[in-house]
Design a protein that fits this description.
It contains two helices and two strands; from the N terminus they run ααββ. By secondary structure, it is largely without helices or strands. The protein has one domain: Pectate Lyase C-like. α1 crosses α2.
Length: 177
């Protein structure tokens, strides 16, 4: 369950939130199940936050710090994550359809069964990420970094890749001639 104080402060804006985290020395904000639909949270610090099951649809998280955050089952449809850092985050079963993710850092993130269907993941960093069973159908991985990514069981139908071959990832892939 979300901490009402945390949600109330976050709704006051990014400046107040980031100051609150510093003043209160909060290391892991509790926002589980919070409804932040449509909020403008550019450059927000949500590192290590518990956002399991949160409604983040339509949220502007441009250049946000979500390193180590737990977003299991979160709804991020239509959100903007351009330039955000989700390194080491958990997004197991999260829904990211129609989310902007240009230049997002997903390095070492747990992205099992995450739905990326039809997304533009240009310049995204999936280095050593766990994408087992993820839905990447119809995505654009243009200039994306996928070294060491585990794509076992991922849906790669219609994936567009440029800059780095999928053969470098840890998945049994067949490249059509």
């Amino acid at each position: 369950m979300e901490n009402r104080t945390h949600v109330e402060v976050l709704q006051q804006g990014v400046y107040e939130w980031n100051r609150f985290l510093l003043d209160e020395k909060i290391q892991a904000p509790q926002l589980r199940g919070a409804n932040l639909c449509g909020a403008i949270l550019r450059r927000v610090n949500l590192a290590n936050a518990d956002l399991r099951g949160a409604n983040l649809s339509g949220v502007d998280l441009t250049v946000a710090d979500l390193r180590g955050a737990n977003l299991t089952g979160a709804d991020l449809r239509d959100a903007n994550l351009d330039g955000a850092s989700l390194s080491g985050a958990t997004l197991d079963d999260a829904d990211l359809r129609h989310t902007r993710c240009n230049g997002v850092k997903f390095a070492e993130a747990d992205l099992r069964r995450t739905n990326f269907s039809g997304m533009d993941l240009r310049r995204a960093d999936f280095t050593d990420a766990n994408l087992r069973g993820a839905n990447l159908s119809g995505t654009k991985l243009l200039w994306a970094h996928i070294q060491g990514a585990d794509l076992g069981g991922a849906n790669l139908t219609g994936v567009e890749v440029l800059g780095e071959p999928l053969e470098d990832a840890n998945a049994p892939l067949r490249v059509a001639a």
